[in-house]
Structures are given as structure tokens and as C-alpha cells.
Amino acid sequence: MSPTDHEHTWAQAPASTFPDLRCTVCGASHTAIQDMLGEAADDATRLVGEAYYTGCRVRQELEKLELWLFDPPASVLEELEAIRPGVYLIHTDAPRSPRTLDDLRDSLDWAAWRAEGVEVHAVGPSEDGYLEVGVEGDLEAARVKLDAAYGNDVVRVFECGPMVPAIVHVVGAPNE
After folding, report:
1. Regarding beta strands 155-159 and 131-136, do their DSSP bridges make them parallel or antiparallel, or are they unpaired?
2. pLDDT at position 119
3. pTM of structure
4. Vertex 67, ends 66 and 72: CA angle to 5°?
5. Strand-pair partners of 43
6. What is the pLDDT along the chain (176 residues), one digit of tens a residue?
7. 40: buried, middle or exposed (CB in 10 Å: 19+, 13-18, 0-12)?
8. Contacts for 156-164 with beta carbons within 8 Å, 24 or more apart?
9. Which of left, alpha, beta for 137 (phi over 0: left; psi -120 to 50: alpha)?
10. What per-residue confidence (pLDDT) applies to 168?
11. Which DSSP category does 76 fall into?
């Protein structure tokens, strides 16, 4: 039975010495699928490279890795299919390159946006080629202002409060 015949429903494997979830329909191992998809993600990022790869999402229920790429050449798509036939769900329509998203992220002036009434708390690229901006307050007003600055369909606004940075002490790290 293939994953396209059903959607996996997970339950603890009976009498298992190793904690693992198994599909109640076909018996597939959650851990084995996760390992295989992790390896597929590593292969894809290595093969596709920074110029085309914008992100991925594990589709555990389908036993597939969903990839978003920016304008990849046909040879890249052919090689992906050759190394792991049937594993990738590939979208070649990411609207922006990773470099463009990094530049947009780095150009965001948090203080200037605060002065405009947009309280930004997080910013970063989405896996499918958009700049995601986490704001506190009026989401619609923030979206309108960010669209005016960056263009329509570039930024996705989501609700996000202030984040508390983690304090990490590394033994043996030099003092700054």
C-alpha cells in the first residue's frame, strides 16, 4: 500500500523496545520516513544550491519532501528526480531568489518601521520565496505600509509579540 492510497494515522508501535510511531493502516515507521526525508532534504540542498533553493517542507503523510525553487534549470530538476525518484514535490515558482530575500531582510530598518507605527519583532524568508515579517498590533495597517515600501505580494505579515533572546553561556568561550 503506497502513501497515496491513504493518509498515515500514527500510533505507538505495539511491544516496541524502541519508541516509534507506526501507521495504523500500512505499518510504516514514522522514524524511518523522517530519516529518509531528512536525507532527501540534504541531497536537495546540496544539489540545487543557494542560487535556486528557497526552502522545503516535510510532507510526512505523503512520504515526500516539498521543495520550492527559484527558476531552476531543467538539468537540476532532472537530477533531483534521478537521485530520489518520486520523493520530491517540486514547485519551481518561488517568486524570489534566496539572495533577494536575504537582501530584503537585511535592508529592513526596524527603528524606522517603529517610527512609522509598525512594531516589527521578526523577519525572515519563507520556504516559498516571500519575506515574512512578524509584527505586533494592527496587521492590516502593517501589511499596507510594508506593501507600499516593498511592493505587493513580496511581504507576508503575521502576528508576533516581542521575543526574549535566549542567554547561552558556553564554557571556555572568550569574553567579549
Report:
1. parallel
2. 94
3. 0.72
4. 150
5. none
6. 345 566 767 677 666 555 677 766 667 777 888 888 889 999 999 999 888 999 999 888 888 999 999 999 999 999 999 999 999 999 999 999 888 999 999 999 999 999 999 999 999 999 999 999 999 999 999 999 999 999 999 999 999 988 755 555 455 444 44
7. buried
8. 156/126, 156/130, 156/131, 156/132, 157/132, 157/133, 158/132, 158/133, 158/134, 159/134, 159/135, 160/121, 160/122, 160/134, 160/135, 160/136, 161/121, 161/136, 162/121, 162/136, 163/121, 163/122
9. left
10. 52
11. H
pLDDT at 132: 94
How far, CA to CA in Å, does 123 sit from each of 55, 126, 131, 161?
16, 10, 7, 12
Helix (H) or strand (E) holding 134: strand 131-136
Query: What is the identity of the amino acid at 82?
Result: A
Q: Which three cell numbers stand for residue 136?
A: 505586533
| Inter-residue contact 67 to 9 (CB < 8 Å) | no
SS3 label, residue 104: helix
Phi, psi of 120 (to 5 degrees): -85, 130
pLDDT at 18: 59
Tell me the three cell numbers of residue 64: 515526500
Q: What are phi and psi of 144, to 5 degrees?
A: -60, -45
Order of strands, edge to edge, in the sheet holding 64-69?
Answer: 53-59, 64-69, 88-91
